[in-house]
């Protein structure tokens, strides 16, 4: 994976510009045990209730196959009391309206540095460089009008596929011959970001057919990457 990209999370993933951390659970948390106990009529402990309150399940809508299991992950945002204490919103405005579920273009240190050093010719069409990141907004929370945060899942570019990635029985890395110039890869790699780093919303489509018109002039994805298991889904057959 490019060193411009935040590395795949292990036990936790931290955005240096944001006071929140996402911690992942390798196994289902005790909340699952809590539900089983309730189903069987058993009493839940205080620790059961604590874990159930804080750990969340994030699901991802991508087909499962025998070679590619579910991408769903259990996570908690820390500090959890501060995160959960903020108000949750459906959208925010920052010169444009962004709603939970939208795909967005995210600025980062590399893209900001480029913008500060390059001379741009404004022709009415902004060029998207490879050093911008693309993500899907999953959740929006705010303390006030100056402190608004989004929980996002990253859309990887093909060159971000890290060494040791398993696709079927093959170990791969980086861009593959079948990847298109505007192709992205869905991932379950999440972060909390300040919404001020979001430049704009963008169109990202899931391509499940063979008609190029479906993805003309748009970003698209047809594969998914599980950053927890380092497995890339197979290319759908058309």
UniProtKB/TrEMBL annotation:
Cross-referenced InterPro entries: BAH_dom, BAH_sf
Gene3D superfamilies noted in UniProt: 2.30.30.490
Protein name in UniProt: BAH domain-containing protein
Annotated BAH domain residues: 96-236
Species per Swiss-Prot/TrEMBL record: Fusarium langsethiae
GO molecular function terms noted in the UniProt entry: chromatin binding
Biased composition annotated in UniProt, kind: Basic and acidic residues: 30-47
Region named Disordered: 27-47
CDD domains with a match to the protein in the record: BAH (cd04370)
């Amino acid at each position: 994976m490019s060193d411009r990209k935040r590395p795949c999370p292990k036990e936790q993933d931290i955005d240096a510009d944001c006071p929140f951390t996402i911690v992942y659970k390798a196994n289902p948390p005790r909340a699952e045990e809590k539900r089983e106990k309730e189903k069987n009529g058993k009493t839940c402990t205080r620790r059961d209730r604590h874990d159930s309150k804080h750990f969340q399940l994030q699901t991802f809508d991508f087909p499962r196959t025998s070679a590619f299991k579910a991408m769903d992950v259990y996570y908690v945002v820390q500090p959890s009391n501060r995160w959960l204490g903020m108000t949750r919103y459906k959208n925010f405005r920052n010169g444009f309206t962004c709603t939970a579920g939208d795909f967005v273009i995210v600025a980062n240190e590399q893209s900001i540095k480029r913008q500060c050093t390059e001379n741009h010719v404004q022709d009415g069409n902004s060029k998207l460089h490879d050093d911008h990141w693309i993500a899907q907004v999953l959740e929006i929370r705010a303390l006030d009008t100056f402190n608004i945060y989004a929980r996002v899942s990253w859309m990887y570019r093909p060159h971000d596929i890290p060494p040791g990635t398993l696709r079927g029985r093959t170990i791969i890395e980086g861009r593959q011959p079948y990847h298109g110039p505007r192709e992205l890869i869905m991932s379950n790699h999440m972060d909390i970001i300040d919404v001020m780093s979001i430049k704009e919303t963008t169109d990202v489509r899931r391509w499940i057919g063979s008609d190029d018109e479906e993805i003309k002039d748009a970003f698209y994805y047809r594969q998914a990457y599980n950053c927890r298991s380092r497995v890339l889904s197979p290319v759908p057959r058309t």
